[in-house]
Design brief:
By secondary structure, the protein is of the alpha/beta class. It contains 13 helices and 15 strands. It is globular. 47% of the residues are buried. It binds 4'-deoxy-4'-aminopyridoxal-5'-phosphate.
């Protein structure tokens, strides 16, 4: 019998049975009073759990669409944008903004290094920007940007909107939108929310909404705040068909978060990340993310000498764990493993055990080393 294949890529993440059940329900009309109420409660929980009195949008689409929604509603051709990039997904903003005629400056970091608050401040002092984008955790590196400290610094630049890509972070990395002075935060359902791919979630504060209002109407129809806001204020209204079953799945994800408590959830992510990172090092991998800036949602593990990426991931999949390869210059040099959302300790143990068996087959003496390190961290107070 073959092992079950654990979904350990950094998104989509494991979808637990109770969330799957919501996706499998018989679909109802979007005007059904039960659904209208469910959608409303999803929106109110999203604001409360993530700490904002601003607006929230839940729209069918992916994280990339949310990136575009953030830019399209707040910037126009000719505006200046500072992209703070510490990896592949930070860079995605550059092309996206340029296609819209937005003028882009980039503050770029070597992969594995975290953005520095003082350096962002220096760039904002040199030139006035309409917005700055920061990727909370870049999924190509596993580095977490200091989003709280950046937000504090940005209080000195009230005309610059703070846009945070939380796709590989929100729901796992600690965040509080209003307290962190974030104007726009967004994520996708398939990462730390543990829902299948298909929904974009975007929070926008008063400053972002004022900017959007001044830009109305924007060229884009489907992703315009103006089109969706009436629905987010009254979920019985129609603009474009809501993804009914996905919204139910999101509701279940939120009830899991509420039952766990956000602080407990953040601490669980921290502990699981420490455990997975200790296990990786004990098995001979090096982490790409520098110490002190490691995200809690995924880890990027550089191969030891002599381990072939394609062969490693092929055997690992046979052993029962799917992980992702490296991106761009790191293709072939590392693998990426997710430990966010509703990934539990059994899955972490199963994945580390499968990695040990894979390395053992490649002739490395690792059996028990990763598991011991993992368990030690999992039982630490
Ligand atoms: N930003 C980050 C940080 C991501 O990790 C991803 C997806 N890996 C995206 C944006 C794009 O999201 P999607 O694939 O859902 O379009």
């Amino acid at each position: 019998m073959k092992n079950r294949k654990l979904l350990m890529i950094p998104g989509p993440t494991p979808v637990v049975r109770s969330i799957q059940d919501q996706m499998g329900r018989e679909t109802v009309a979007f005007g059904d009073p039960g659904f209208v109420g469910d959608f409303k409660s999803v929106l109110s929980d999203l604001k409360e759990l993530f700490g904002t009195s601003g607006e929230v949008f839940v729209v069918a689409g992916t994280g990339t669409m949310a990136m575009e929604m953030a830019l399209a509603n707040t910037l126009k051709a000719g505006d200046d944008l500072l992209v703070v990039s510490h990896g592949f997904f930070g860079d995605r903003f550059i092309d996206m903004a340029k296609r819209k005629g937005i003028r882009v400056d980039v503050l770029s970091y070597d992969w594995g290094k975290a953005p520095k608050v003082e350096e962002i401040e220096a760039r904002l002092t040199e030139k006035t920007y309409k917005a700055v984008t920061v990727t909370h955790v870049d999924t190509s590196t596993g580095v977490a940007a200091p989003v709280k400290a950046i937000g504090k610094m940005l209080e000195k630049f009230p005309d610059t909107l703070y846009i945070v890509d939380g796709v590989a972070a929100t729901g796992g990395e600690r965040v509080n939108i209003d307290e962190y002075n974030i104007d726009i935060l967004f994520t996708g359902s398939q990462k730390a929310f543990g829902v299948a791919p298909g929904l974009a979630i975007l929070w926008a504060g008063a400053k972002a909404m004022d900017r959007a209002k001044a830009l109305e109407p924007i060229p884009e129809h489907y992703i315009s705040f103006e089109k969706w806001l009436p629905i987010m204020h009254d979920t019985s209204k129609y603009y474009a068909t809501p993804a009914i079953n996905m919204i139910w799945a999101l509701k279940e994800s939120l009830s899991i978060m509420k039952a766990e408590g956000m602080e407990n959830r953040y601490q669980r992510h921290e502990q699981n990340a420490r455990a997975m990172q200790a296990a990786a090092e004990a098995m001979g991998f090096k982490l790409l993310a520098e110490e002190g800036a490691r995200g809690v949602t995924l880890s990027c593990c550089l191969y030891p000498e002599g381990v072939d990426d394609a062969e490693f991931r092929r055997v690992l999949a046979e052993e029962g764990a799917m992980v992702a390869g490296g991106l761009a210059a790191y293709a072939g040099k590392l693998f990426r493993i997710g430990h966010m959302g509703n990934t539990d300790q059994h899955e972490l143990l199963g994945a580390v055990a499968a990695i040990e068996r894979t390395l053992h087959q490649a002739g490395l003496d690792v059996l028990g080393k990763g598991l011991t390190a993992l368990q030690q961290e999992l039982v630490r107070d």
